[in-house]
Design a protein that fits this description.
The complex is a heterodimer of chains A (489) and B (85).
Chain A (H helix, E strand, L loop, with lengths): L8 H11 L4 E5 L2 E4 H18 L5 E5 L4 H12 L3 E5 L5 H11 L3 E3 L6 H7 L3 E2 L15 E7 L7 E6 H14 L7 E3 L8 H11 L3 E4 L8 H8 L3 E4 L1 H9 L13 E4 L6 H10 L4 E6 L9 E4 L15 E2 L4 E6 L5 E7 L11 H7 E2 L8 E10 L5 E6 L4 E3 L2 E3 L1 H7 L9 E8 L2 E8 L5 H11 L8 E4 L13 H9 L4
Parallel strand pairs in A: 1-10, 3-4, 3-5, 5-6, 9-10, 11-12, 12-13, 24-25
Antiparallel strand pairs in A: 1-2, 7-8, 13-14, 14-15, 16-17, 17-19, 18-19, 19-20, 21-22, 23-24
Helix pairs in contact in A: 1-2, 2-3, 6-7, 9-10
Chain B lengths: L2 H18 L21 H15 L5 H4 L8 H10 L2
Helix pairs in contact in B: 1-4
Classes of the chains: A alpha/beta (489), B mainly alpha (85).
Chain lengths: 489, 85
Amino acid sequence: MSTLHPFDPYNVFQAAAVKYADRIALRIGEREWSYRELETQAAAIAGWCERNTPTRARIAVFGKKELAAYAGILGILRSGRSYVPLHPDHPPVRWRSVLEQSGSAACILPSNVGSDIAEELKIPILSDWSNEAHVPPILGQEAYVMFTSGSTGGPKGVPVPRNNVAAYLEHMLTRYSFIPEDRFSQLFALTFDLSVHDLFVCWGSGACLCVPEDDSALRMSAYVETNAITSWFSVPSLAALMRRMRSLRAGALPSLKHSFFCGEALSWDVANSWREAASNSTVVNLYGPTEATIAITEFELTSTDSQRSGTVPLGRAIGRNKAKCIPDTEPNEGELWLSGPQVTEGYLGRSEETANAFKQLPEGNELWYATGDRVRVDRDGIFHFIGRKDDQAKVLGHRVEPAEVDGLLAPVVSPANVLTLPFVKGDITRLVTFIDMELDTAPLMEHLRANLPAYMVPERIVCVGAFPTTAHGKLDRATLISMVVDEQC
Amino acid sequence: MNSAELQIMLQDRLAPRMDRLGLAKHEFTNDLDLLRIGILDSLAFVDLITELETALGMQVDLEKAFDRPGATTIGGVIELFLNGK
């Protein structure tokens, strides 16, 4: 029988709603909602879910930067159900795949969304809950299903139990000194599990979640200043972009008290620039695959390590989680394995991929997640990121399996003739697809745009006469990348 | 450098991306929003601005520039370099 974890995501929100009912919980642009108002919305949505969907059903939330999305997530969790985020900017074929795989029973949709989208989703829709009867909170098991890039068969879903989220929140809300006067950034898309940190670390602190109406990466300094943000959370690429825009001048971000980065490697260069700009802020590098719930290791930068180069360490496992290096070439280098209360149990409907990634060690019966990340562990037990065991790339923090991109071109180009690779320019990772034949690339780009989220679409498709090879006859990826890195536009 | 010269410079730099999207030359007008049409994303837009800064030997105030409407249109970029010193 389930019991309520004190740091259960809905529970921490509700506790804040009782204690800080009239404080502002959510700010989108210049519109604001108090904890009391947000809880009222959630209670009505939960009522509809309880009356119209099976117990513990999965329910999709379609939207971004709208009250419906935030109240929808809270309402679904209040009803003991699990939410499945859909991004309005992703192609409809992606929504269909997510809805089918998750078996979502219904969808919460903002009322201003066109009827064509409601028809496209082909499941019961809730857009107006103003007259719905409220229900009290209902205990649930699963918090959400997040979808990440899969090397075969499109996106793969990771169901995340509520207790996993609770384990993360327990660490964050006890380790860091957040207060109700704090103002949290909300920059991650709701389809990205790092958004769960934004929402529930904020609401668990009784603080205000500040959602930029215009989330253009080009206006981040103004967003921090206008909203007096105190707790920042983003991918390092955003900080790198701000640095390129010369926004990270010394003392430029004085309101920040906490700065968290996650989703991709954080370079010391960018981290040090950030520390100069946010001189009143702690800076913490978080690491965690979706399978290990939001973030599972942390490294807090200290004043003594400002001279370092390369990338900031991943740090150590948080809370009661464990991290282990499974050595390969060197005694202290190898694949990072993770275990503990934040590690999930596998993928939705993919038993083979689950068996390949979720394993037991001979000496115990704990479940370990084999991350595919290669790490080095130093004498102090701190983990350092080295690279990937496979071709997986991170673009703006999003995991991308290049094979998923290549596979979409299969009807036109055989897998042997196409290769998508990540490349880094100005501290920011992008994708480029190479084809070893001459083709009209415009229709191919159109096809990729129609089937993939924007972050998975390569910056360009480059036709080369033949793939270059090294002296040993292997594919020469470095030469291919050099073809695009130095080009203008 | 005047407005017409800047427009030609931009057109030359963006021609490969316009071609890849199947956009014709006559569509390259001052109203064309580079981000909205998908010619550039935010990252590539900053790349473009910093490359133009290098080429023209000047620095613009990027933060202020993006606060005004139309900043990411062709006309907006031209105005940035004409008035953004």
